[in-house]
């Protein structure tokens, strides 16, 4: 796997809004190595090349190991500031005009780092990103689903405390299975009372009940992921009626095997049903993706960049003036030129090209005859099983 770094090459692919990116998951190998040396932390690799190999996605458990390793290396306000500024540079180079970053403070607090060190470091990065790149960023600290509810409440209280430093919402992350959202209702009530929106993860690997719990118990303003809403047509209709934006991350869904393959990703079906969907990278350094790749994938799926951008405008946790500015950027964009640039990107990106190939080449039997692809029942989710050109295969759930 080649871990992308630096500004993108090729034609621009339009303005972008990203509402779902874990800042810990944006740290590229070279940055992690420099931080480890600065903080006296020992890594299981000593060169950028070795760390790049360590970052290679293998399975979800390995991804969590790398994510935890990254969070342990980040220890100071300077580390947190740098992570924000580095990603702001990367995202703005891909055309991002607004980003909401996620960070997970609790486990660092348990390791002896103060709330002030964490929140002020990230907030300083947001201020610097605006000054250096003109990129408006908001922060949404995550509550992990494994936390006891009272500890979750403390995360919410601290988020409210730092609201004036760029905190715009509170999220809920971690494993969905066995960890429903309802026990965290009080924490999200504390956040809401303090003026912060609820933006939980739900419906990534678990079904509609997880999404309904996030809506009803937590008062979700947006849903991060939410792709399993398609399992319940009534829920899809409710999302449309309530104008709930889903922050969808196709490459992440492939890597974590939340979907069997990208060609059958739920994004176009959700958009066709009238659900507003923004597009995001989730953990770009660890999933070998970036905003350019995600938009190429979406284009290969037939979803327009304009629809994705306008969903981002609708879902952004920003003030009225910022929303008006973002809308004006979208209104002034040449979306026909963006579509043409994305058509080129589809041909050159292995994942996007794989989607296009799957769409144009129906599967055949061993005898060379066209295969019957089931639309319901056993086998409907089997997928086409292509790889991304780097050995990462899509497999059925």
TrEMBL record:
The entry's keywords: Hydrolase, Metal-binding, Zinc
GO molecular function terms noted in the UniProt entry: deaminase activity; hydrolase activity, acting on carbon-nitrogen (but not peptide) bonds, in cyclic amidines; metal ion binding
InterPro entries found in the cross-reference section: A_deaminase_dom, Ado/ade_deaminase, Metal_Hydrolase
Ranges where the Adenosine deaminase domain occurs: 15-327
Enzyme class: hydrolase
Cofactor: Zn(2+)
EC identifiers of the protein: 3.5.4.4
Any one Pfam family match given in the protein's UniProt record, by short name: A_deaminase
Family per record: Belongs to the metallo-dependent hydrolases superfamily. Adenosine and AMP deaminases family.
NCBIfam families noted in UniProt: aden_deam
The name this protein goes by in its record: Adenosine deaminase
Organism: Candidatus Protofrankia datiscae
């Amino acid at each position: 796997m080649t871990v992308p770094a630096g500004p993108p090459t090729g034609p621009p692919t339009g303005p972008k809004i990203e509402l779902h990116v874990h800042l810990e998951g944006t740290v590229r190998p070279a940055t992690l190595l420099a931080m480890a040396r600065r903080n006296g932390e020992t890594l299981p690799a000593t060169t950028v090349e070795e760390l790049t190999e360590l970052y290679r996605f293998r399975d979800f458990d390995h991804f969590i190991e790398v994510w935890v390793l990254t969070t342990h290396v980040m220890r100071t306000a300077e580390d947190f500031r740098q992570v924000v500024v580095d990603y702001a540079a990367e995202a703005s180079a891909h055309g991002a005009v607004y980003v909401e970053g996620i960070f997970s403070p609790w486990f660092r607090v348990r390791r002896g780092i103060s709330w002030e060190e964490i929140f002020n470091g990230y907030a300083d990065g947001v201020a610097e990103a605006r000054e250096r790149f003109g990129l408006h960023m908001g922060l949404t600290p995550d509550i992990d689903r494994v936390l006891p509810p009272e500890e979750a409440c403390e995360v919410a209280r601290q988020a409210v405390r730092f609201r004036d430093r760029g905190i715009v919402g509170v999220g809920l992350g971690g494993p969905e299975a066995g960890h429903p959202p309802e026990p965290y209702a009080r924490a999200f009530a504390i956040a809401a009372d303090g003026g912060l929106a609820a933006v939980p993860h739900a419906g990534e690997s678990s079904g509609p009940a997880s999404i309904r719990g996030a809506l009803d118990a937590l008062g979700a303003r947006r849903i991060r992921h939410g792709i399993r809403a398609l399992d319940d047509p009534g829920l899809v209709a409710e999302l449309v009626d309530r104008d709930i934006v889903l922050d969808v991350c196709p490459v992440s869904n492939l890597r974590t095997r939340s979907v069997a393959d990208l060609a059958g990703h739920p994004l176009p079906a959700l958009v066709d049903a009238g659900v507003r969907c923004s597009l995001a990278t989730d953990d770009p350094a660890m999933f070998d993706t970036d905003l350019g790749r995600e938009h190429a994938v979406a284009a290969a799926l037939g979803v327009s960049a304009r629809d994705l951008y306008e969903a981002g405008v609708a879902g952004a946790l920003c003030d009225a003036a910022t929303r008006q500015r973002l809308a004006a950027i979208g209104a002034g964009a040449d979306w026909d030129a963006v579509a043409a640039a994305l058509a080129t990107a589809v041909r050159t990106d292995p994942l996007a090209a794989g989607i296009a190939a799957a769409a144009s080449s129906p599967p055949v039997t061993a005898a060379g005859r066209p295969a019957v692809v089931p639309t319901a029942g056993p086998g409907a989710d089997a997928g086409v099983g292509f790889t991304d050109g780097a050995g990462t295969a899509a497999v059925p759930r």
